[in-house]
Amino acid sequence: MVALRSDSVTVPLRLRFLKVSARRSERELNTPQGYVGPVADPIRTARRRLAEALRDRVAGPDAERRAHAIWVAPGERRFAPDDPICRVQGHAGMYAGGIRALLLQSLHPLAMAGIGEHSGFRGDPWGRLQRTSEFIAMTTFGPVETAEKILDRINKVHTTVVGTAHDGRPYDATDPHLLRWVHVAEIDSFLLAHQRYSRTPLTPPEADRYVEQAAWAAGRLGIPDPPLTVAELESQLASYRPELEATPGALDVARFLLLEPPLPVAARPGFWLLAAGAVEMLPGYARELLNLRLPGPLRATDKVALRVLARPLGRVGTAAVSWAMSDPQEPRNRPDNSAGA
Fold first, then answer.
1. How many helices (H) and strands (E) does the chain have?
2. DSSP state of 171
3. Where do the record's region annotations for Disordered lie (predicted)?
4. What is the pLDDT of residues 155-214, one digit of tens each?
5. Residue 125: which domain range?
6. 38 lies in a domain?
7. Is the residue at 35 inside a domain?
8. Is 153 exposed, middle or buried (0-12, 13-18, 19+ CB in 10 A)?
9. Which among 291, 290, 286, 282 is positioned nearest to 250, based on CA atoms?
10. What would the DSSP string read from start to end of 92-110?
11. Considering its fold, how many domains does the chain have in total?
């Protein structure tokens, strides 16, 4: 959950998405077994290809091995499939939430220095994403023993992430104050995206439970007194507001993510749907600092435009990801899935 580490991006892996019920129509029930029809087959093929493309990007060339270690490998799981943390961090809204989290995190100068100098953000963005996705998925859905090993590994990496920010201040990835900032910005983003795009948003008590469950990994990463309720989360997040600014590094992150995403040209429109949803969810001060506001006299209509235009775009992008990842052939959806048992 920490963007200062070299393996921590907040744009996550295919975590737990909406489970789509497969209801056969009366026509399908009366169709010979094995026949898929002239329309269904191309649709299924398209879904399979989209799912594979997403998985290759967020899980890397050894996606099958990683998926097996998370979803299939035997071992005790810390959380049950219907726990709030599994519902939130297994929902397709994590894509837009992850983009929002990284944009927000970049506004802290010391956190941004760690991201820019140690994370491989520009040089190897997909490798960074794959490592972070594995971390989030494993600590949420994977065997407890393996999750503990990943947390130990991240703590070791943090000891090497030190340096000097653009303003001359030193930074250290083991600094509890910085670790807390990264954590609260991330959890706030994930929760907001789920509440915005899920058909079954969490109730207030469930939202508090999500924040509490997310605190387990935070504590293991050296964050003292992580928030345990939504009210505490909002209070801690607000306490950082005086420290935030749009450094050149933060503006570069926004430009890289929103204008120059490391994707083929044909894939960028789909990404921009998710990015629109992420920008819409940012607090007003963050959009102001990152120059993500409408210009001149149009600024008065900024909030309305985002709600009317950007929010629906984010919903479309999230729905497309959810549809693709509901493919029965995905490891998380197979009958031998231990995490969902």
1. 16, 2
2. E
3. 322-341
4. 999 999 999 998 899 999 999 999 999 999 999 999 999 999 999 999 999 999 999 999
5. 45-333
6. no
7. no
8. middle
9. 290
10. TTHHHHHHHHHHHHTTSHH
11. 1
